[in-house]
Amino acid sequence: QVQLVESGGGLVQPGGSLRLSCAASGFTLDHYVIAWFRQAPRKEREGLSCISMRDGSTYYADSAKGRFTISKDSAQNTVYLQMNSLKPEDTAVYYCAAESSHDCRGVDFGSWGQGTQVTVSS
Known about the structure:
The chain is mainly β and about 120 residues long. About 0% of the residues lie in helices and about 50% in strands.
């Protein structure tokens, strides 16, 4: 059974940084892609970034390019999202999701974590 557990959220001042973690278990990571999404109050869920666990290929939404970096530690079965230069509009619940695929493009993610709150405020 696929399990994803996010951590690392919290309160940070504008301009600050956070690193989110997504610990995965219950499946063979090499055959999966893992992505980060976020959902702010009264807004639709937004895809941010995705990584192929097989070859490390990464994809970024325009809103994440330049400030967010996705990475993986296959030995730890963990995917990270490093977020820099955070803005108040980055405030949201951040989720990781996984799906069996070797490519991030066109994936309908079926497994989700519970989310971690990120609040950017002074």
